[in-house]
């Protein structure tokens, strides 16, 4: 038996025993013909993934990636908030097979959703409470402005460490290299610009010449056409069959006369 | 026919054209044909003198047959041969005659073209005549409103003047170039012309004139908005500072390389003379201004 056959048989067997798969049934029940349930399940899944991302952000060492993850979380929150109204509409719709208690429960669930979404921490959670200092860095979300220097204000703390001076040097070098590269590009662009301008002027110069050529060639073509037509007329005239027959007959007559004279003179 | 001796053809043609008792009217047609054949034969055998004569006569024949176009063409061939013989006055005469014939055919472009060819031929030997020829050629083109063709000719005149070290005349022609370029909306050529003018003045070590020229040209919008304007400004300020290094550095930049080769050579040789003198002059000027203000 080949691999393909094995795979097909496994698929068939799985399909037949699907009805014994508890988890799958549960999902299917949820998503069977009930738009509200489906949508609600999707929103729940998104909230779960957002909370996971929050965990990730809090573990992040570099501020930049933390900021990026927070921004993503905020985007997801905005999207979810937009979906809440649709869910509310769906919750009010009457679906068969659902009891009134369940309908009420659904309404409550939907109402609870916005709060749950807002509660997802995205680095700006403290702003509402403080009502002040908006900043994109999570470190500024604390209520008071705090210096990072851990209360050390002596000179030594502010001397550049080896790391920072190395960093600065690297930055300067890279900047220099970039400048050099940009200089070269600008030189090339200058040359290109000049060439393009010159080409433009040259083409402008040639436009009226081309127009002249155009008119002259048109005139020549018209003359040629004229001449051809006349030539055709002349040739047809010459070669018309009537003239041709007359020519042949006259030729025969002349030859006859010549032969007759020849015979007469020979004698 | 091409096998027969060109000399014989010439004499035959001469016979046809000279009037005598047996001949009451000159047969220019066949004569011209014979002249042309003879001329070609001479040219092939590298006998330039005789070929030139033959072309002259052929051209005269064509004139008699009232076809100035062919006459002009033969005249040009004669002139080209005269150039080979380095007979400059004849070159000029022939080309002038050819251009007159072209004007008769109402083709000013060709006329100016032949004058330009003449100028190019004699520019080493007789530069002043060359300048005259170029100017006439430019006038012809401008009358026909074809200024764009004239731009090259103006460049050539400027080069001759620079070679003769007549810088003011060179600048005058550069400004004429700018004017012609303006008429046909060739802004790039125009700006380059003005920049070249400033450079020529600086090369002649005349900062005042250069500044005046720069101010005049700045009146023109197209120049004001261009790269060449910025560059000229930088150059002039470097001169006013009296900073030789700065001048050299500015002169190496890309804007210069886009200009005409002669101008590039001038720019590379900047600064000529003592730039520090300009610096002190400028400083004195500022001090005087302060004094006047103080009195008030």
From TrEMBL, chain A:
Q: Which PROSITE patterns match?
A: SYNTAXIN, T_SNARE
> According to its record, how does it sit in the membrane?
Single-pass membrane protein
Q: What Pfam families does the entry give?
A: SNARE
- Where the record annotates domain T-SNARE coiled-coil homology, the positions are 172-234
Where found in the cell?
Answer: Membrane
User: Some GO term, biological process aspect, for this entry: which one?
Assistant: vesicle fusion
GO cellular component terms? endomembrane system; SNARE complex
Regions crossing the membrane:
248-265
How this chain assembles, per its entry, is: Part of the t-SNARE complex.
Record family assignment? Belongs to the syntaxin family.
Function of the molecule = Vesicle trafficking protein that functions in the secretory pathway.
What is the name listed in the Swiss-Prot or TrEMBL entry for this protein? t-SNARE coiled-coil homology domain-containing protein
Question: What is the species of this protein?
Answer: Gossypium raimondii (Peruvian cotton)
The organism that produces this protein has a lineage beginning with: Eukaryota, Viridiplantae, Streptophyta, Embryophyta, Tracheophyta
UniProtKB/TrEMBL annotation, chain B:
Query: Where is the protein situated, by its record's location annotation?
Result: Membrane
Keyword Protein transport part of the UniProt annotation: yes
What topology in the membrane does the UniProt record assign?
Peripheral membrane protein
Provide the alphabetized UniProt keywords. ER-Golgi transport, Membrane, Protein transport, Transport
Write down the Pfam families for this protein, in alphabetical order.
SNAP
Q: Which domain of life is it from?
A: Eukaryota
Report the record's Gene Ontology biological process terms.
intracellular protein transport; vesicle-mediated transport
CC per GO annotation = SNARE complex; vacuolar membrane
One term of GO molecular function? soluble NSF attachment protein activity
Q: Where does the UniProt entry say this protein principally localizes?
A: membrane
Could you say which protein family the record assigns here?
Answer: Belongs to the SNAP family.
What protein am I looking at?
Gamma-soluble NSF attachment protein
List the source organism: Gossypium raimondii
């Amino acid at each position: 038996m080949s691999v393909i056959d094995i795979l097909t048989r496994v698929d068939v067997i799985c399909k037949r025993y699907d009805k014994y798969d508890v988890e799958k049934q549960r999902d299917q029940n949820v998503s069977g013909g009930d738009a509200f349930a489906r949508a609600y399940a999707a929103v729940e899944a998104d909230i779960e993934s957002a909370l996971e991302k929050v965990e990730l952000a809090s573990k992040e060492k570099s501020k930049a990636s933390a900021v990026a993850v927070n921004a993503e979380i905020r985007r997801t929150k905005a999207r979810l908030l937009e979906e809440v109204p649709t869910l509310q509409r769906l919750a009010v719709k009457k679906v068969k097979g659902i009891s009134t208690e369940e309908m009420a429960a659904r309404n409550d669930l939907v109402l609870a959703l916005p709060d749950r979404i807002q509660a997802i921490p995205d680095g700006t959670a403290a702003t509402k409470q403080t009502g002040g200092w908006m900043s994109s860095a999570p470190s500024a979300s604390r209520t008071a402005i705090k210096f990072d220097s851990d209360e050390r204000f002596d000179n030594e703390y502010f001397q550049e460490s080896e790391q920072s001076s190395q960093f600065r040097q690297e930055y300067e070098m890279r900047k220099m290299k970039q400048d050099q590269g940009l200089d070269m590009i600008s030189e090339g662009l200058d040359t290109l610009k000049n060439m393009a301008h010159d080409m433009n002027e040259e083409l402008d110069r040639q436009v009226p010449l081309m127009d002249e050529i155009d008119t002259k060639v048109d005139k020549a073509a018209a003359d040629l056409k004229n001449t051809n037509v006349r030539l055709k007329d002349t040739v047809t005239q010459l070669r018309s069959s009537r003239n041709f027959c007359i020519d042949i007959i006259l030729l025969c007559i002349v030859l006859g006369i010549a032969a007759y004279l020849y015979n007469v003179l020979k004698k | 026919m091409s096998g027969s001796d060109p000399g014989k053809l010439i004499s035959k043609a001469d016979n046809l054209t000279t009037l005598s008792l047996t001949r009451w009217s000159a047969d220019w047609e066949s004569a011209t044909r014979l002249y042309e054949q003879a001329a070609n034969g001479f040219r092939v055998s590298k006998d330039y003198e005789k070929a030139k004569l033959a072309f002259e006569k052929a051209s005269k024949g064509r004139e008699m047959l009232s076809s100035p176009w062919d006459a002009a063409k033969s005249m040009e061939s004669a002139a080209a041969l005269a150039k080979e013989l380095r007979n400059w006055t004849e070159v000029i005469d022939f080309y002038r005659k050819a251009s007159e014939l072209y004007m008769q055919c109402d083709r000013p472009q060709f006329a100016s073209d032949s004058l330009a060819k003449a100028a190019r031929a004699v520019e080493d030997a007789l530069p002043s005549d060359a300048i005259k020829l170029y100017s006439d050629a430019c006038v012809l083109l401008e009358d026909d409103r074809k200024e764009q063709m004239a731009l090259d000719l103006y460049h050539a005149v400027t080069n001759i003047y620079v070679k003769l070290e007549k810088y003011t005349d060179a600048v005058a022609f550069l400004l004429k170039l700018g004017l012609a370029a303006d008429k046909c909306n060739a802004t790039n050529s125009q700006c380059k012309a003005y920049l070249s003018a400033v450079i020529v003045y600086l090369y002649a070590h005349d900062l005042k004139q250069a500044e005046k020229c720069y101010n005049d040209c700045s009146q023109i919008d197209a120049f004001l908005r261009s790269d060449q304007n910025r560059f000229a400004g930088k150059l002039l300020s470097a001169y006013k500072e009296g900073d030789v290094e700065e001048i050299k550095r500015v002169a190496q930049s890309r804007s210069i390389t886009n200009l005409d080769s002669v101008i590039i050579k001038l720019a590379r040789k900047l600064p000529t003379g003592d730039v520090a003198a300009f610096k002190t002059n400028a400083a004195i000027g500022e001090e005087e201004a302060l004094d006047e203000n103080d009195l008030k």
